[in-house]
Write a structure and sequence with these properties.
The complex is a heterodimer. By secondary structure, chain A is an alpha+beta fold. Helices cover about 50% and strands about 20% of the residues of chain A. In chain A, strand 4 (about 95-105) and strand 5 (about 105-110) form a beta hairpin. In chain A, helix 4 (about 115-180) packs antiparallel against helix 5 (about 190-220). Chain A is elongated, with a radius of gyration of 39 Å. Chain B is of the alpha/beta class. In chain B, helix 3 packs antiparallel against helix 4 (about 65-85). Classes of the chains: A alpha+beta, B alpha/beta.
Chain lengths: ~400, ~220
Amino acid sequence: MATDEPDHLAVAGWRFLCDTGNIVLLIIDRNGGVRFANQYAKTLTGLGLEGDHISRMLLVDSWTNPTGVTLLEQWLNHSSPHLMNVRTTGELPRTLYVTLYPVDEGYLFFGQEDDAEQDRLSRELLMLNHELTSLSRELNQKNAELAQLNALKNQFLGMAAHDLRNPVGVILNYTEFLTEDLSDHLSSQQVHFLETIHSSALRMSQVINNFLDVSIIESGHLSLTRENVEIADLVRNVESLLGIATIRRQVRIETLLDPTTLKLKVDGPKIEQVFTNILSNAIEHSPDGGCVTIRSEHLHDGVRFQVEDQGEGIPPDQQKRLFQSFSGTGSKKKSGERSIGLGLVISRKIVEAHGGRMFVESEPGKGSVFGFILPDSCLAEYKSKQVMGASGDRG
Amino acid sequence: MQSLVTDPIYENYLAALIAGDRAVCTAIVQELNNADIILKDLYLNLFQRSLYQVGELWEHHRISVSVEHLATAITERLLTTVEPQAFRGQFREHSVIIACVADEYHQLGARMVADFFEFHGWRGYFLGANTPVKDLLDLIDKRNPDLLALSLSIYSNLPSLLKALDAVRAEYPDLPILVGGQAFRWGGTGSLKKYSDVTYISSIDVLEQKLEEYGDR
């Protein structure tokens, strides 16, 4: 009995290693051919292994080193620890620490993972995670501070613009008064001075209004008052407003409006602002004597309005930036004035508040098309009101 | 221009990286930062060089998977200390989406490329490791980038890359795509030829040349 016990234990131990133990057990021949693989080896690698070469367990083609020595030869010629990085069914590779025992016509291969090393990696990664969490918290704090500073900037912009509007208004009124009432008593040079003061103050007033709009939009206070709007009337108003610029630039305006796009439920003054902006841009960038076309079209899911000019066009790399605040795309008009480029930003915000989007299509040398698409709902809401109104009339 | 990463500095850093000594690695990078090292020098001559060496040691079973993971994690942490230099540029004229394809978990190279784009005045949207094709398409739709850059580290993931290219090309036939990564050491560039406007980028220098075509600042 006592002499039988070691054999019995050996059999039990062997069976444990073959069927249950978390250790890779292989019997390989002298060339690395796998003759036997235990269950853990097969489960870990997702391979049958028996009949394969041991190199199939490797993730990359690394059976030989750069000098052509095989991994098996390296293990046999150097003292342990021997490492073997293997592919696994769980995507991430793992490292086996290998021990070889010579047996008849080959080797008994034991491969085990180093728990202490895994623990260290876990600890380090945990620490790094803590650091990144702290960094993330700092970042959130900084973002909050930046948001507050941005709000303060908007507040300042709004207050400054508001306070500047009145004095500029006074300058405009008095220069108009002087030009109209005293021009008979002034020399032509003095009249020219007054006109220059007036046009400069007018430009300053537009800039101040843009600053006010930006400060309102950026602070999230842009609100719409939707009402039924006749787009043909609105466009006529804009054309009339820009009449002087049209005459000065000798630009012809052609209006081609699709009759099915003319009744919308939108914020009329704000949409008028958008039209004014893109039409005045088109006039300013047109060649003398050029033609600007205002066009509308009913799309399958919306209404498209656009203004086409025959100007110099815009390079593709600048087009994306046109609708961004203070992006440095302010352009020089034909008249020589510089624009700070806020008009399109404001227009974009107004159109987006209606659920629509702005667009630009342009090619240098071939002019530009600026426009916006409003969702079909702007049209549909108006139509439904009309139907209800008509029904009420009949009643 | 001569690199600030001298051989002794590099050897010290590599030894600390393999030993998992984050404090020493951080001190070395901090010192180089204090000496106003430029991003390209730091990324190529310290981070990229050391990680390539770690990769080689791992491939030849000289270091374990854990050591390689730790070295990657340390490097990724160090990137956060130098990234402010990348984001210091002017207004971003162009934008690029940078992603690792599905099943690709090695994101460090792609992140360094993203930083490199930022350094050159691009707005980089970095999607990181293992990006599903749908997420990639959604972001392209949302951001409308000038370029898409896809990274592949493991050669066996080539089918995932080709799947992503098929999907992107079907939806966005004109979007220029750059492809790069360590996987291409084993081949695979031939399979990119069937796609229009897909360019293999073999190194940061080649990437720089490509960026110049877009009017680099």
